[in-house]
Specification:
heterodimer; A: 248 residues; mainly alpha; Arc Repressor Mutant, subunit A; 3-stranded antiparallel β-sheet; 8 helices; elongated; B: 173 residues; alpha+beta; 2 domains; 6 strands
């Protein structure tokens, strides 16, 4: 015949100790360490028997309790050193329990408040859009609106009916790697160069962009340093690092 | 301007704002000083309460907000089909209590008081926006410091953190 055990769940060793203390109907200050230790260990073994993972904090507390208990049992050394400044571990534990109890009570107070006040709802802020006074709708009629719509629809229709255009995709005139190679070769010869000199001859947008990207890549690799005295001024490019060791 | 009219304007502003409105903003719109605005809002709050309206005016720190009365929450949930919010776990409530009374406070301090790890509770409370990081302690490791938010005050019906009851509670063990 089996039986069911219901184990209360505790928030931690302090919580469990408080429970044991309140079950014994004693004040925190009056706890008997040996009694409470026995009960505490009982609880842990019940947990073990039920295959519940015991958090390490419970073990630490068990050790603390046993330590306090054992130090009670052992006779104190006769030569009581006055330098025994160490705080009494039992008093420390009592202090911690009292402190914890305060917050446990406060948590209960908060729980009750929350039950009441979580039923309070508020509204999201209204999204009032500023229409702006710059936009003036003077002399605009609904016919204008209709006309605009028709124009749009016609445009769409026309584009749908148009024949598909065949375009050749041209190969890129220059790739990033090509440009890096070119710039490297140039720097091997010259050592330093201005950005304006690099883009002087063939001034297409793509060419400038690729040149710039190539420089960024080379900066990133640590091959060159770039300097600019102020925004939009020319960029001074100089080689850097061991890559250039064998060049002049 | 007559008081009645100022109250009506403030009410309209609070309705549009939804969120808590700082006393200073109300004062600025009405062109009165903050103390007068505060008095006006308190009077308005009292009149809402007196008339047993579905809405009430609450104070959160130095801001005011229009919210529904908690006793009608269940009707609002019925209307919207929302479920009741899951109550906070005891671990969360204990952690929240420690933060509320000791803020700004580090995780290590909280764990010392509770005697257990609090990572999960702190993550939940952060997620629910009941607490927030308020800085870092100038100590080894620069641990994060936690404090409560205005939403915390609102969710627990507090006007300010000073409304928390004193901690030297009853000693019945």
């Amino acid at each position: 015949m089996g039986y069911q055990v219901r184990l209360e769940v505790f928030e931690g060793p302090l919580d469990l100790l408080l429970h044991l203390i309140s079950k014994a109907k004693i004040n925190i200050e009056d706890i008997s360490i040996s009694e409470i230790t026995a009960q505490y260990m009982d609880y842990l073994s019940q947990m073990q028997a039920l295959d519940i993972d015991i958090a390490s904090e419970f073990m630490v507390m068990a050790a603390t309790l046993l330590h306090i208990k054992s130090s009670r049992l052992l006779p104190k050394p006769a030569s009581q050193q006055p330098e025994e400044q160490e705080p009494d571990p039992q008093q420390q534990l009592i202090q911690r329990l009292k402190e914890y109890k305060k917050y446990k009570d406060a948590a209960e107070w908060l729980r009750e408040r929350h039950m009441v006040y979580s039923g309070m709802y508020s509204k999201l802020p209204e999204e009032l859009i500023d229409t702006g006074e710059n936009v003036k709708f003077s002399n605009v009629t609904k016919e204008d609106l209709a006309q605009a719509m028709m124009a749009l629809l016609n445009k769409k229709k026309a584009s749908q009916e148009a024949q598909p255009v065949v375009r050749n995709i041209k190969p890129e005139p220059i790739t990033l790697q090509d440009r890096i190679n070119q710039l490297t070769a140039l720097l091997v010869r010259r050592g330093k160069v201005l950005f304006s000199q690099l883009v002087r001859k063939r001034f297409s947008r793509l060419y400038v962009v690729v040149t710039f990207l190539a420089l960024l890549e080379m900066v990133n690799k640590g091959w060159i340093v770039v300097q600019q005295s102020r925004p939009f001024s020319d960029i001074f490019i100089q080689r850097k690092g061991s890559r250039w060791k064998n060049s002049r | 301007m007559e008081e009645q009219q100022m109250m009506a304007i403030a009410e309209a502003i609070l309705f549009i704002a939804g969120d808590p409105v700082p006393v200073g903003s109300i004062a600025a719109v009405l062109d009165i000083d903050d103390d007068d605005a505060r008095r006006l809002m308190e009077k308005m709050a009292a009149s809402y309460a007196l008339q047993h309206r579905g809405l009430q005016l609450i104070r959160v720190n130095d801001s005011y907000q229009l919210v529904t009365r908690p006793e009608y929450g269940e009707y609002i949930r019925k209307f919207t089909g929302m479920d009741k919010e899951q109550p906070l776990s005891r671990a969360c409530l204990e952690t929240l209590a420690i933060i509320a009374y000791n803020q700004p406070v580090t995780k290590a301090d909280i764990e010392q008081l509770r005697g257990v790890k609090c990572d999960h509770a702190i993550a939940v409370l952060l997620d629910k926006n009941l607490i927030c990081e308020v800085g870092r302690l100038d100590a080894p490791g620069k641990p994060k410091l936690y404090g409560t938010t205005d939403l915390f005050l609102k969710s627990f019906g507090l006007s300010s953190i000073h409304d928390l009851p004193s901690l030297t509670s009853q000693q019945d063990a």
